[in-house]
Amino acid sequence: MAGQVQRQTGVALWRQIADRIRQAISAGAYDETGMVPPETVLALQFGVNRHTVRSAIAALAQEGIVRAVQGRGTLIERKERLNFPITRRTRFTSGIGEQAREMRALLLSHSEEKADADVARGLKIRPGEPVIRMETVRKADGRPVSCATAWFPAARFGGMPDAYKRTESITRAFAELGLSDYVRSTTEITAIHADEADTIALELAPGAILLITKAVNTDLEGVPVQYAISRFAADRVQFTIEN
Amino acid sequence: MAGQVQRQTGVALWRQIADRIRQAISAGAYDETGMVPPETVLALQFGVNRHTVRSAIAALAQEGIVRAVQGRGTLIERKERLNFPITRRTRFTSGIGEQAREMRALLLSHSEEKADADVARGLKIRPGEPVIRMETVRKADGRPVSCATAWFPAARFGGMPDAYKRTESITRAFAELGLSDYVRSTTEITAIHADEADTIALELAPGAILLITKAVNTDLEGVPVQYAISRFAADRVQFTIEN
DNA sequence: TTTAAATGTCTATTGATATAGACAACTATA
DNA sequence: TATAGTTGTCTATATCAATAGACATTTAAA
After folding, report:
1. What is the domain partition of chain B in residue ranges?
2. Which of A3, A196, A239 sits opposite B188 (nearest CB)?
3. Higher pLDDT, B231 or B207
């Protein structure tokens, strides 16, 4: 842990400390006790006032990561980080496997629109051709994990929103629409700060980090069937690439 | 762009705005003029005072991304984002290709130590076995891109630090030590906030984002030869995975 | 039942962040 | 050479973030 906090950076000390503690928890640093060290210890460790540590812990409690109990200490409530393997056969829902008891995928909105340059490049179609656009949120055990915007060629997958709403799965929706199998062609990964909309949708602390993937899925002939930009809560997930 | 800024989040408005503008620049939003919009326009856009925008621009100028010229406007100095393909044949230096004129790899420090649990798992050796540890920084055209901590089995690659210092390349250093080829086995990607040490080493704005990769390279027989944890400046890079 | 150790609450003070307005200085152009 | 449009500087004020200290309240263990 250690590593001092920085002052006058535009990021409040309590937020920096909250980020550090969240990280330490998910790295298993406090597994022995199942508790965060006492406020006075943390204050000494980070070289700040106890009240500043309290602000940090209050933020983590707000996120549901810890629960402070007067007289006992601050208990760790949640420490998981979901792992997403990125392979040729990347699947969102089944990829989670036993890491969560329940995965839900919710369709927030959908529309038919004309492909812009970015989408057209991903789907290998001409700009202006009709595409289905879907905005989705995926949750693991009720906890939001990612927001995604996905585009499908309208000619082939006009029924996508309906099928997705019913099946809550891209894989199953594709199957209903006659595509029994598909593969991940390319994935592009970046990281940015969450904006307001994603902060709300993902129930994040403001200023949180998003891992962004831009992915293209194709059918077995290599024809693109889906282009998706997904925004993952960085402190809840990791990606693994097996080569 | 748009998307309002958030108040009372522990992240100062000027920092949020700086992050947005940096992102917009790298997305090419201001390519037509090569300039950031006037302060008054940005202030209106973000719904903040002009002075707040000025703080944001001052931070970006500090990073060398923009340069404000009295009477003219705020010129964009730099907007590149390096792309790192992650494949079975991932190479750092040659992977950059023509994206930068000059790549340099600097060895900050090295030591021989005993493998801890994490390193032992990566290198598939027993905890406690001797490993060479190297701390490195890699720069593209003089701009720091990543910090890395790398471990090698000491028995086989004792000469690694020397060879790396001379060749400034893992690939060439391996070659000098008799390993003509190697492949990327696994890569794990996460994102966190930069701590103080990395902020300094990577010349980052405090509160910046790091993309973290944990990677295992093996020889052609599948025996691990390197385990590395790299920390990339998230606003300077992206990863692509081709399947 | 004490006591130590932990979190919870309150008051006060200082420094950083943000707003507001006015005006100076510089640049490019009509 | 004006003038519009831009960045630079200054003062003042309000709010948030951080420190400091004192003491209350709760829990678990001696």
Report:
1. 13-76, 82-241
2. A239
3. B231
| A9 CB contact with strand D at below 7 Å | no
- Identify any residues that bridge with A149 across adjacent strands, giving them in sequence order: A135, A229
CB contact under 8 A, B209 and A207: no
Strands B73-76 and B224-233: unpaired
Interface contacts A/B by beta carbons within 8 Å: 150
Q: Is A167 helix (H, G, I), strand (E, B) or coil?
A: helix
Give the integer Cα–Cα distance in Å for B117 and A10: 37
**Residues present in chain B in total:** 243
Give the pair of three-digit tokens for residue B21: 């503008």
Amino acid (one-letter) located at B84: F
- Fold agreement between B13-76 and B82-241: no
Query: Running DSSP on this structure, what letter comes out for residue B142?
Result: T
3-class SS of residue B159: coil
- Cα separation, A133 vs B118, in Å, equals 42
A57 and A36 Cβ atoms separated by less than 8 Å:
yes
Q: What pLDDT band is residue B163 in, cutting at 50, 70 and 90? A: very high
Interatomic CA distance for residues B201 and B114, integer angstroms:
25
Low-confidence stretches of chain A (pLDDT beneath 70) = 1-4, 80, 94-102, 205-207, 242-243
Q: How confident is the model at residue B99 (pLDDT cuts 50, 70, 90)?
A: low
Nearest to A98 by CA among A78, A79, A83: A83
The interface predicted TM-score (ipTM) is: 0.69
CA distance B145 to B232: 6
Mean pLDDT computed over B57-67? 87
Topology at the third CATH level for domain B13-76:
Arc Repressor Mutant, subunit A (1.10.10)
User: Of A57, A12, A19, which is closest to residue A35 (Cα–Cα)?
Assistant: A57
Rounded CA-CA distance A187/B206 in Å is: 29
Q: What is the pLDDT of residue A1?
A: 47
Rounded mean pLDDT of B154-170?
93
Name the A residues in 114-173 with CB < 8 Å from any B CB.
none
**CA atoms within 13 Å, Cβ hemisphere of A225:** 23
Distance (Å, whole) CA B218 – CA B224: 4
CATH architecture group of domain B82-241? 3-Layer(aba) Sandwich (3.40)
- Whether residue B198 contacts residue B174, with contact meaning beta carbons closer than 8 Å, is answered with no
- Contact between B15 and B56 (Cβ < 8 Å): yes
Among candidates A209, A238, A243 on the partner chain, residue whose Cβ is nearest the Cβ of B193: A209
